[in-house]
Amino acid sequence: MAEEGVKLYGFWISPYSRRKIPVLVHNEKAIAESQLILEYIDETWKENPIMPQDPYERAMARFWAKFIDEKCVPSFRKALLGEETEVENAIEETRENLKILEKTLEDKNFFGGERIGFVDIVANVIAYWVFLFQEAAEKEVLTEEFSILCNWKNKYVNHNITKETLPPKDKAVAFYRAHFARSKTSS
């Protein structure tokens, strides 16, 4: 990819720059937003597809990615970092979302089957970041009770494709502990 004029602008702590808006620049053309970047990569470099080939399965992958971004991430954020008045409801909503995700993972190694794919990359926020945020915030929402998700998480974070791209856990936890402490004092 580098020889084709590719740059990804993001943040050191995010292996896929999965924050609100990372930017990929390819041949001097900018693409913003994580999921759009993933789809662009899939369509541009076809030798290792991350999206399913079947149109229905592609639509379902987009559905689950949207579910994770629009339902799971906000409820996790409120459960771990929200105001005391919203935490209890957010934890319940998060647990319901996790139950739904577990049903989609039953009998599969990854969301797309046997290989890491689009939904797994989007769900990186759950596989790595939620556990890190839980430790930094000293709260627990995603527990071993969700054994299917925990098994998937272990396969995902220990896979040779992802293992070397994740930031050091200790450094990331320290960063977010400091960030959360600053947020509390400024509010």
Automatic annotation (TrEMBL):
Residues 54-175 form the GST C-terminal domain. The keyword Transferase applies. GO terms for biological process: glutathione metabolic process. Residues 1-49 form the GST N-terminal domain. Residues 77-104 form a coiled coil. It catalyses: RX + glutathione = an S-substituted glutathione + a halide anion + H(+). Signal peptide: none annotated. Its EC number is 2.5.1.18. Gene3D superfamilies: 1.20.1050.10, Glutaredoxin. One of its GO terms (molecular function) is glutathione transferase activity. Keywords: Coiled coil, Transferase. The keyword Calcium does not apply. GO terms for cellular component: cytoplasm. InterPro entries: Glutathione-S-Trfase_C-like (IPR010987), Glutathione-S-Trfase_C_sf (IPR036282), Glutathione_S-Trfase (IPR040079), Glutathione_S-Trfase_N (IPR004045), GST_C (IPR004046), GST_C_Tau (IPR045074), Omega/Tau-like (IPR045073), Thioredoxin-like_sf (IPR036249). It is an enzyme of class 2 (transferase). Belongs to the GST superfamily. This is glutathione transferase.
